[in-house]
Amino acid sequence: MLKKISAMVILSLAVGLSACSTRQIAQSPTVALSPQIQDQAITTSIQTSIQSLSKRDWRVESVTPDRVVAGLDYRGHYLQVTYFIEQHRVRSEITASQNFSQHGSQIHRKALKFKAGLDRRVFQKLAKL
Fold this sequence. Notes:
TATA-Binding Protein, five-stranded antiparallel β-sheet, two-stranded antiparallel ribbon, 38% helix, globular
């Protein structure tokens, strides 16, 4: 009986420790831009940044005057990041995911890494406008 309990405890620990690692989704970064920059230039800059990462499986999914939606398909996982354009400010947010263990405000750490890489590219390009 004691062996069965010990085996179950060890198995539970092994499963618990091998589970995917999730992290808190941080507050979305916001970048303020000069009022002289046209919204069209902002949208185009974001699109170009996403397209430059096409070799890393990022693609532009949709574009409207107030948002650009990027999608990543990676090894059976999907991540969607939306860039909201509001009064010369741009902020990014994870708006959908599949197979990244998203539950409420928690998501797999790899998803946050992918988003951070995209944000870095987009915000660097916007800073050059």
